[in-house]
Structures are given as structure tokens and as C-alpha cells.
Amino acid sequence: MLLAVDIGNSAIKFGLFEGEKLTSKFSIPTKRDATADEIKLSVGDRLRAAADSAIVCSVVPDLDLPMTAFLREVTKSEATFVGNSFDFGLKINYEPLESVGTDRLVNAFAAVEKYGAPCIVCSLGTATTIDVVSAEREFLGGIIAPGMEAMAEALHMKAPRLPRVDVLSSRHLIGNTTEASIGSGIYNGYAAMVEGLITRLRSESGVSRVIGTGGYAGLFSAQLAGIMTVDADLLLSGLCKLGK
């Protein structure tokens, strides 16, 4: 069995595959200074089936070595770390190549493999990335914007008299308290930003198919219904295909 690992800025996601079937998945919080033993403790007994190989996409370099040691113990083999020089079956139009997040490339690869090209890939997480792949399977690049939590944190830091609120505390458009008003501005403002960026990218690129993924994609699936198809396991499925 193959263990796919997505090391993100906020969470580390694990997916266990039998062939191309995702049999189980779970996540742990990202702790940038975690040791291999701390990762093992956080994972606990959630790896309920034996894996004999592992493939990793990481945007947190500090965790690469401890994750390598943890996976070596789990699989009794060396994990494969996906890099930007991998063959994704895409022509990558991005300079310099090493500066593009590997997660963006894996998501683009997975979206094309699963849904076809052309497509727009929208990942809603700690950061918001929206990328375009042409009909000729060319990764054209795209947009990087703050994620919803980053917006809330930045507002509090720049205007300290405004409280740091739970961004999900109020989804009503008109807030009748300061906390509710901030919650509305962040939640509804974020949804409007994503919708607006997708609309502009569609207009400029001529691409209509949009695949949404990332931690917040499911949360906004109702608001963005008809705009994008949500695939929470897009990156893990891409890793599975790359690891075959």
C-alpha cells in the first residue's frame, strides 16, 4: 500500500491507497519544529494498515528530514519527495521553476488527470492559489492571495483595537456587533474575492472548468455552487498517481 503525505502550512494530511483507491485518510496540525518522534506521537494508531512505500509533497522544508525518518520507520523504505523537476506531463510556464509551490504543480497535474484540460485549479487553504492549465496541458501560472485566516490575522495586527475573531462566527452579511461585522467582512469578503478572481480568470483565459480543493473549499461549496467542482482529496490523488 502507498502512503501519500501532503505537508501543508497548517496541516499534514495522510492518505493510504490500495491501488488508486483511497482507503483511509487523516490529518495532524503542522508543527514546524516537530521531530520524527513527535510526528509518530501525533499520528498515533491512525495508520491502521501497513504501507510499504510513501510519497510526499511538502511546502514546509523544516519538516522534510523528520518526516523522512518517520516514514522510513513506518514503511521500511525511503520516501519519495516530489520536486518541481518531476515529470508532471505538463509544460510549466513559470519562472523560475523552483519558485512555484510543488503543491500547485501536484494539484494541476491531478486536476488534468482526473478532469481533463483545460482547467482552473483553485486551492483554498492557508494561502489561496488559483492556477490555469491550457488545453495543451501548459501550466500558465495564476494567482496567489491570502487565505481566510491570514486575512483575519492581518486585520487584527494592523488594527489592534479590532478583536481577533473566529472567521466562522458570523456568516450573516450585516453584522450588528463589531465581532459579527468583522466575521462577515472576512467570510463574505473572502467568498467574493474567490468568486471574483475565478470570474476574471475565466474571462481572460477562456477556461470554464474550475476544480476547487483545500481546507476551505468544502466550506464555500454552497456559495460557489455552479462555479467550481470541489475535490477535497485532489492533491492526495495526484500523489498516488505520481507514486505508481
SSE order and pairing:
Elements: E1 2-7, E2 11-18, E3 21-29, H1 36-43, E4 53-58, H2 64-75, E5 80-81, E6 91-92, H3 102-115, E7 119-124, E8 127-133, E9 138-146, H4 148-158, H5 178-205, E10 210-213, E11 229-230, H6 234-242
Parallel strand pairs: 1-4, 4-5, 6-9, 7-10, 10-11
Antiparallel strand pairs: 1-2, 2-3, 7-8, 8-9
Molecular structure report:
This protein has 244 residues and is of the alpha/beta class. The protein has two domains: 2-81, ATPase, nucleotide binding domain (Nucleotidyltransferase, domain 5, 2-Layer Sandwich); 91-148 and 180-242, Nucleotidyltransferase, domain 5. It has six helices and eleven strands. It has helices at 36-43, 64-75, 102-115, 148-158, 178-205, 234-242, and strands spanning 2-7, 11-18, 21-29, 53-58, 80-81, 91-92, 119-124, 127-133, 138-146, 210-213, 229-230. It has a six-stranded mixed beta sheet with strand order 6-9-8-7-10-11, sandwiched between helices. Strands 3-2-1-4-5 form a five-stranded mixed beta sheet, sandwiched between helices. The longest helix is centred in the C-terminal third of the chain and has 28 residues, at 178-205. The radius of gyration is 19 Å and the shape is globular. The N and C termini lie close together (11 Å).
Quick overview of this protein structure:
This protein has helices at 36-43, 64-75, 102-115, 148-158, 178-205, 234-242; strands at 2-7, 11-18, 21-29, 53-58, 80-81, 91-92, 119-124, 127-133, 138-146, 210-213, 229-230. α1 packs across α2 (64-75) and α3 crosses α6 (234-242).
